[in-house]
Amino acid sequence: MTVGVAVFGTVLAINGNFSGGGDDKTSSQVVNTQPTQPTSTGDGLQAGSLQFTSQAFGADDAPATADIPTGWKSATGGTRPKYVDPTGVWQIRFDTRGSKQTPDQLVESRAKSIEEKDLQIISRDDGTLIYTYVDQTRGPRMGLSSFRPTPDGSRTLVEITVGGRPQDEAGLRAVLQRATETIQLSGATGDTRPN
Predict the structure, then answer these.
(1) Is pLDDT above 90 for 108?
(2) How far is CA 58 from CA 22, 46, 134, 186, in A?
(3) pTM of the model
(4) What local confidence, expressed as pLDDT, does residue 58 receive?
(5) Rounded to an integer, what distance in angstroms lies between the CA atom of residue 53 and that of residue 43?
(6) Helix or strand (DSSP H, E) at 132
(7) Could you tell me which residue, 131 or 22, shows the higher pLDDT?
(8) In angstroms, rounded to a whole number, what is the distance separating the alpha carbons of residues 30 and 63?
């Protein structure tokens, strides 16, 4: 697994620290208003080209916020929102419903449930599943699904998944890391998700 990760880039360091108590320091804050664009050389989504905007989502009784790349638009809302870049190549999806399973259990479950052509599991460390596959319409794809734990590690608070092409890995890792570092879940201190 380590060799596969080295081939696809450096390992993403996600610290799993969530600010969950109603701290609105990042809510509705625009970091930069320039949309992220594909590179003209076709080298993929570059981490250094990303700019972020805080977005609010979730249910009325359980709102959440996180930074997403500027210019990516909401494709779905609610407790499972998805944001897509204007070209439709890259996306980020959140699932704030939580789970009674641990992040590692969810990684194993997700790895077994993906039914895509030429699926290759690159890594399944620290509650994060990294994989590639071939989409019939869009060609080679890469996904990174991160399941973030409750403070005691016994359950999962949120899933964050980013997707794009294998050559976008550096940018996808940066998007996932930024979303993980900035996500704010209401009431995370006494969070009882799932109910």
Answers:
(1) yes
(2) 14, 28, 31, 10
(3) 0.76
(4) 86
(5) 24
(6) strand 128-135
(7) 131
(8) 18
